[in-house]
Amino acid sequence: MSTPRRPDALERLWTPHRMSYVTGGEAAPERDPDLPECPFCRITADPATSADDALVVRRGSAAYAVLNLYPYNSGHLMVLPYRHVADLDALTPEESAELMSLTQEALRALRAISQPHAFNVGLNLGGPAGGSLSGHLHQHVVPRWSGDANFMTVVAGTKTLPQLLEDTRDLLVEAWDEAQRAAVPGVG
Predict the structure, then answer these.
(1) Which of 10, 98, 152, 166 has the highest count of CB atoms within 10 angstroms of its CB?
(2) Where is average pLDDT lowest: 46-50, 100-104, 113-117, 118-122?
(3) What does residue 131 show for φ and ψ, rounded to 5 degrees?
(4) How many CA atoms lie within 13 A of 43 on its CB side?
(5) Catalytic residue flag (residue 138)
(6) CA distance 148 to 13
(7) pTM here?
(8) Do the strands 63-67 and 139-144 form a parallel or antiparallel pair, or are they unpaired?
(9) In whole angstroms, what is the distance from residue 111 CA to residue 89 CA?
(10) Phi, psi values for residue 133, rounded to 5°
């Protein structure tokens, strides 16, 4: 006997491995009370003392790129302004331009090191839109491969990520400069 379909006819892919992050069930590291509460602002407040600074891939003058601590796929990073701002329309022209420029650079660097088949690039503006850290705007760049959502996640409750964050960061930092030089004629 087959299971009846839901009225909306959508297939569901359950990702229970994300629930501990969503509910805050993972033990959070002790936070320095002298640093901002926002994890993105902590990175920029004092990079020398921020453990998350090790995940920063590229810094610009108004924005930066950082690997996602809870990646959907290897190479999942975020591009965000230094300034703590929630809304896209609140960005300055400089912040908007650099957010897009760094996103384009991220795509080139990820293509160079991982050869993904596609990307998800986007913003979740506000908590109900999926923004778990919605107070600080950040654009996700997620490399995708055909078949990257496989049976392991569903059957074993395990997301397979073939690369450590530190290794991903090191490869991206090196490829970022190379991809940027190749994209800009006469630079090199």
Answers:
(1) 98
(2) 46-50
(3) -80, 100
(4) 25
(5) yes
(6) 13
(7) 0.70
(8) unpaired
(9) 29
(10) -120, 60
Pairwise CA distance, residues 66 & 144, whole Å: 18
* 101-118 tens-digit pLDDT: 999 999 999 999 999 999
Q: Which residues contact 69 (CB under 8 A, 6 or more apart)?
A: 52, 55, 165
Residue 164, both tokens: 């450590």
Residue with tokens 């995940």: 55
Q: Please, are residues 172 and 110 in contact by the beta-carbon 8 Å criterion?
A: yes
3-state DSSP assignment of residue 160: coil
Please report, as a single letter, which amino acid is at residue 44. T
3-class DSSP assignment, residue 93 = helix
Q: Please choose, from the candidates 151, 117, 138, the residue with its C-alpha nearest in 3D space to the C-alpha of residue 68.
A: 138
DSSP structural state of residue 98? H
Structure tokens at 30: 């002790």
Domains annotated for the chain, with CATH where assigned, are: 30-183 (3.30.428.10)
Catalytic residue among 17, 76, 117, 138: 138
Q: Which residues of 44-53 are buried (b: 16+ CB within 10 A; e: fewer)?
A: beeeeebebe
